[in-house]
Amino acid sequence: MTHVQERAQSSNAAVNAIAGKDGAGSEFLAFTLGQEEYGIDILKVQEIRGYDAVTRIANAPEFVKGVVNLRGIIVPIADMRIKFNLGTPVYDQFTVVIILNISGRVMGMVVDSVSDVTTLTPEQIKPAPEMGAAFNTDYLIGLGTLEERMLILIDIDKLMSSAEMGLIEKLAT
């Protein structure tokens, strides 16, 4: 099996798992990074907060803004604009931190803004296109289409459990 076939099979499995076999659809939290709109599984979201100052960690990757103390839990904060190389981030009144609970690990991700919760049926989710080696699509579930909107659906479990994100957890302890 070629890499493209493996990727397509993996993407289809992710679409089916997220969208649900019963056809009822799944809910995604829609947020923006730069000019694009993204979506993550709402069940992974613990809370949404305004962006506050973070405590920087020495020798952390650039996309790791630092850590915050959230009701006694040290939570690492990653800036997705830096992670996805979307230009210089600007922190303003719309900037938010999405607190995620991924396999029992609490972490936060900084995004430009959060718009709404969108329900997508399996028919509205298309597999992510193969972009070649220049663009890593491993963290994408697919593209969600809703009228004129298109959400880039992120497999937040896969993204947050990647090797470099594992560094965040080590830094926070």
UniProtKB/TrEMBL annotation:
Query: Which residue ranges does the record assign to the CheW-like domain?
Result: 25-165
Tagged with keyword Transcription regulation = no
The record, for InterPro entries, names: CheW, CheW-like_dom_sf, CheW-lke_dom
Q: Name one Pfam family in it.
A: CheW
Q: Where in the cell is it found?
A: Cytoplasm
Q: Which CDD domains match?
A: CheW (cd00732)
What keywords would UniProt list here? Cytoplasm
> What name does this protein carry?
Chemotaxis protein CheW
The lineage's top-level taxon is Bacteria
